[in-house]
Write a structure and sequence with these properties.
Elements: H1 2-19, H2 26-41, H3 44-55, H4 57-63, H5 65-79, H6 85-107, H7 117-149
Helix pairs in contact: 1-2, 1-5, 2-6, 2-7, 3-4, 5-6
């Protein structure tokens, strides 16, 4: 039951990516598709199941496997939109980052664990803002470091 529920989220996420309009940036596609998927998946049953997983060591261990599958499903869906090698690289990178952030949020004792859909979606939106901001800052610091190293 748990694995099927987790796989269903991955299928829904990949489908949400495929349904995004042509011409959207990959970052916009992944953010909006992820938020839509989380919104649809955040039911009282899924919240209860998530709590059960977090409170059971065996289930927590098994839960780690979902991230690799989710990452691959998301990367595959994003790569369908790729038009060149750079897009394929970005698609894979975005999948790694987004699923990595999902993993961090799920492992954080308070992160992302809301009591209702509205709280979970609001948290997800905040996480994307933080991710984009931090990636931008990492890029700035890397550029500044390269200038100093010359």
């Amino acid at each position: 039951m748990i694995a099927a529920w987790q796989d269903a989220f991955g299928v829904a996420l990949a489908q949400a990516v495929r349904q995004r309009p042509e011409g959207e940036s990959l970052a916009t596609v992944v953010e909006r598709a992820f938020i839509d998927s989380v919104s649809a998946a955040a039911t009282p049953q899924s919240i209860a199941l998530d709590r059960l997983i977090k409170s059971t060591e065996t289930l927590r261990t098994r839960n780690q496997l979902k991230y690799a599958r989710l990452e691959q499903m998301l990367a595959d869906a994003l790569m369908e939109r790729a038009t060149d090698e750079q897009d394929r690289f970005r698609a894979r990178l975005l999948a790694i980052i987004v699923i990595g952030v999902m993993r961090m949020a799920n492992e954080d004792t308070g992160g992302g664990t809301g009591n209702n859909t509205k709280e979970i979606v609001a948290y997800t939106r905040r996480m994307f803002k933080v991710v984009w901001s931090e990636l931008q800052e990492l890029g700035r610091t890397a550029t500044a470091s390269r200038r100093v190293a010359r």
